[in-house]
Hints:
The protein is an alpha/beta fold. Among the domains are: about 115-190; about 260-350, no CATH class. Helices cover about 35% and strands about 25% of the residues. It has helices at about 10-20, 65-75, 100-110, 120, 130-140, 145-155, 165, 175-190, 205-225, 260-265, 270-275, 315-320, 345-350, and strands at about 25-35, 35-50, 55-60, 80-90, 95, 110-115, 195-200, 225-230, 245-250, 250-255, 325-330, 335-340. The protein has an eight-stranded mixed beta sheet, with helices on both faces. The protein is globular, with a radius of gyration of 21 Å. Bound molecules: adenosine-5'-diphosphate, iron/sulfur cluster (SF4) and magnesium ion (MG). Magnesium ion binds near residues 65, 66 and 198. Adenosine-5'-diphosphate binds near residues 61, 63, 64, 65 and 81.
Amino acid sequence: MSSSSTSAQPREATADTxxxxxxxxxxxxxEFRTRDGVAxxxxxxxxSVRAGETLAILGESGSGKSVTAQAVMGILDSPPGFxxxxxxxxxxxxxxxxxxxxxxxxxxxxxxxxxxxALSSLNPxxxxxxxxxxxxxxxxxxxxxxxxxxxxxxxxxVRIPAAKARVGDYPHQFSGGxxxxxMIAMALALEPDLIIADEPTTALDVTVxxxxxDLLAELQGEYHMGxxxxxxxxxVVADVAxxxxxxxxxxxxxxAPVHELYAKPAHPYTRGLLDxxxxxxxxGQELYAIKGLPPNLLRIPPxxxxxxxxxxxxxxxxxxxxxxxxxxxxxxxxxxxxxxACHFWKETLxx
Length: 351
Ligand SMILES: Nc1ncnc2c1ncn2[C@@H]1O[C@H](COP(=O)(O)OP(=O)(O)O)[C@@H](O)[C@H]1O
Ligand code: SF4
Ligand SMILES: [Mg+2]
């Protein structure tokens, strides 16, 4: 987490020179072969995450965020889903070349996922203590007693009040926010290198959202894990993410360090998302909404997939797919980490 870093060095300089990425997704393609046709859910996605770094992946529902994460975790619903191209390099190894058993091992111990809906991810008929303890019993061979002690320690760690008294309680006896903390505890149990949190706070009240997000960010920094935070809500990522990738129709359409993206988006879709965040200083004003809906991935529009909804669209947008252009400053110097898949990124940046 750059915001909580106490290092005097700028983060970029140290991270880039010392640490190679923990995870590198390269030109990933995923499709779903359905009765209605082939849905191109992920179309050439590239991103990387370093240890201790938070990448937020942002986009409306149906843009391929979860499918990308499922491919990384190796839990894609297959069939109908298939990875049809690319590499998922995790700690130097392409996970797509591993056999099922090796893949399962990586998933069990080195990466973990937190889902939106804790109630359906936790087992309703076992106490949370036994579910947390099972992580230690199965993976580390801990005794029942040790596992219980570990479970209490973890519940304390994610600040569940009266952990010792509540270790025998069942998932439905906890509030939504507390259940989401338990999910975080489950993910942390084996001290993974990478956590993927897929809309982890979407089902929670706004105030609880902020608490859970802060906790996740704090633990991620402490454990020096890589974190991929998937969300459709730009409001929740500003304080915790280092960099953002914006997805649309299975592609990344903009990448930027978080504060640059907020200050000066270089893609009309990002601008639309930013303009639709409620702001305290504009109470009572009508919120902007991007017109129309994201495309059906069975029929992605030709050219720029965003063109039917884009206020800036020109003829070229309907015919030519924009590649991810390097975003540069006025002197032509590339801005680190910035790219935009828009023919008119310069004009958008200058708006
Ligand atoms: N199990 C599935 N079967 C068929 N198509 C799927 C399935 N899961 C996802 N898809 C396709 O992938 C698209 C992207 O889904 P997803 O990654 O879940 O979007 P989001 O960005 O909301 O997380 C969906 O709109 C759908 O077309
Ligand atoms: S390429 Fe064209 S349609 Fe696509 S975002 Fe840029 S201006 Fe809009
Ligand atoms: Mg999703």
